[in-house]
Design brief:
Blueprint (H helix, E strand, L loop, with lengths): L10 H6 L24 H13 L3 E2 L2 E2 L6 H15 L8 H22 L3 H15 L4 E4 L5 E4 L7 H17 L7 E3 L8 E3 L12 H27 L11
Antiparallel strand pairs: 1-2, 3-4, 5-6
Helix pairs in contact: 2-3, 2-4, 2-6, 3-4, 4-5, 4-6, 5-6
Bound molecules: zinc ion.
Zinc ion binds next to loops.
């Protein structure tokens, strides 16, 4: 039976913690928490699973998929550690289940980014049914009550599928649905939850934002001499118009 620590009570501290992709040299670190919402642990877990297990490009660099079952288990264990799981030992079968979950969660992120909310709802409904999600209260380690969405004897993949799907389902039905994002920088597929004040975040990190700014600056530098050359060209010298 998978067990994990009590959900983070503070979304800022949870989201400021580096995601799984950080282990590969990238950063996803929201700088401010100004969003007034009820914290749903499934959001953070979904970001971790997608960025760790279903990302081909991160901050301009290719991310190789796990090359072996052992490597997949290692990646899945790293994701569970990031998610705060007390027990990160995981079988190959369960690791494959988490990888499939991550790939399907990525589809949800993409659907919400593209405003295909019906597709997002359909994908989440399928995950809720597949995992047999059912809300129930458990006592946490310190005696406080916690809301979980899986049976006590569920395996890791089923448990996390239920938790993530339920978390994102709550988000989709709230005014904050658009807060799920995918980095807009070229060669980056990292996902994030936008915690900015006005919901205008476009990049997974300041590194990707700087990369895009530098690229735009270089493009302007290239265009400037061409524009200047056009301005200095004598009037009337248009091919085919001179007699
Ligand atoms: Zn990025």
């Amino acid at each position: 039976m998978p067990t994990y620590d009590a959900p983070e009570p503070n979304i800022k501290s949870a989201l400021d913690r580096p995601s799984g992709a950080l282990d590969r040299g990238t950063r996803c670190s929201p700088t401010k928490w100004n969003l007034i919402v009820i914290w749903r642990p499934g959001w953070k877990l979904s970001v971790i699973f997608v960025n760790t297990l279903a990302t081909g490009m991160a901050s301009g660099r290719a991310v190789s998929p796990p090359a072996s079952e052992q490597e997949l288990r290692t990646c899945a264990a790293a994701a569970l550690a990031q998610a705060g799981a007390a027990d990160t030992a995981i079988s190959v079968r369960e690791a494959k289940g988490l990888q499939q979950l991550a790939e399907r969660l990525r589809e949800v992120f993409a659907a919400i980014r593209d405003r295909r909310h019906a597709d997002a709802a359909g994908a989440l409904n399928a995950l809720l049914v597949q995992s047999g999600a059912r809300p129930q209260l458990w006592r946490g380690p310190e005696g406080s009550w916690q809301l979980h969405y899986h049976a006590s004897d569920a395996g890791a993949a089923q448990s996390w599928t239920a938790g993530c799907a339920a978390g994102l389902a709550h988000l989709l039905t709230s005014p904050q649905a658009s807060r799920l994002g995918i980095c807009a920088a070229p060669r980056c597929e990292l996902v994030f939850i936008d915690t900015s004040r006005n919901g205008s975040r476009r990049f997974c990190s300041t590194a990707c934002q700087s990369r895009v700014k530098a690229s735009a600056h270089r493009a302007r530098q290239v265009q400037r001499p061409a524009v200047a050359a056009g301005a200095n060209r004598p009037a009337g010298r248009v091919a085919g118009l001179r007699g």
